[in-house]
Amino acid sequence: MTDLLPLIPAVLGFDFIERTSSTVRVQHVVQLSLAPAFLLAAIGAVMNVMTNRLIWVANRIDRILIADEAGEAGDLAEDLPALQMRRVHAQRAVMLSTAAALTISIVIMLLFVSAFTYLPLGTLVASMWMLTMIFLIAGLGSFVLETRTAARRNRERMRRHRERG
Q1: What does the H/E/C string look like for the chain?
Q2: Mean pLDDT of 41-53
């Protein structure tokens, strides 16, 4: 029984409270987490743009389909394949960016956990950071494909308009 007495403070969390009571240590962890937090904010801003484009494309598809059912779509139906492709790229961009936001949030949490525990989490933090970058690069790549598809369709439409005019 007396062998268990030294474990009581650790079980009750006193050891954790002692490690987190240092203001300097907490300040250091907050400083370390600022770069990932700014990245999280930037991902959110880019996702806002991506989501707005996705909503616009989805609404445009819906309007064309409704007009097509009423027999009023005319030349607008020619835009559907490009719009469908744009929607796929935009959805992929949003999903991958959301995954990047999730993994960078995990990085921030791991930074705090690693500062106040004895767990060697450096490799896990680095791995999650790299995974974040992979998701972010893939999401931005999908966003580039969406904007390229939109630009290409606009050029085709303008060329057709000049040929008719």
Answers
A1: CCCCHHHHHHHHCHHHHHHHCCHHHHHHHHHHHHHHHHHHHHHHHHHHHHHHHHHHHHHHHHHHHHHHHCCCCHHHHHHHHHHHHHHHHHHHHHHHHHHHHHHHHHHHHHHHHHHHCCCCCHHHHHHHHHHHHHHHHHHHHHHHHHHHHHHHHHHHHHHHHHHHC
A2: 97
The distance between the two most distant Cα atoms of the chain, rounded to a whole number of Å, is 95
> What would the pLDDT profile of 85-112 be if each residue is shown by its tens digit?
999 999 999 999 999 999 999 999 998 8
Tens digits of residue pLDDT in 111-131: 888 888 888 899 999 999 999
Contact indicator for 128, 110 with CB cutoff of 8 Å: yes
